[in-house]
Predict the structure of WxcM-like protein.
Amino acid sequence: MKSMGLEAVKIVDLPKIVDARGNLSFIEEFRHIPFPIKRSYWVYDVPGGEKRDGHAFIEQQEFIVALSGSFDVILNDGRQEKVYPLNRSYYGVYIPNMIWRRLENFSTNSLALVLSSTLYDPEDYIEDYDLYLKCLEHG
């Protein structure tokens, strides 16, 4: 398994339709993100300042948006680590497969929307960082 590296990670600006009655943004597969949306889930009620432990996916790609509040997406490709702060609902971060990720520094009442390229499959998760590094070494 090979990681495309952090070079493949992208912050994606989403359309923002400004209206005095309230703004609107949207996400479309293959237009804003490079994969079909097979699953969506959200992370909420995380106590302020808390974190969600890390993992990587063998196949799954993700797109994460902070619909409300803020949090940091910390990404690691086995060579380098980078922090992507998310705090607006009109942009998100695209994460290819085989990138280690964790979510940290949640503000109170934050809401993270995650769009996935695959259906849920527990076999797709790598939840041990040392195993992740070994998978990268053995490509």
User: Anything to note?
Assistant: The first helix runs from residue 129 to 137.
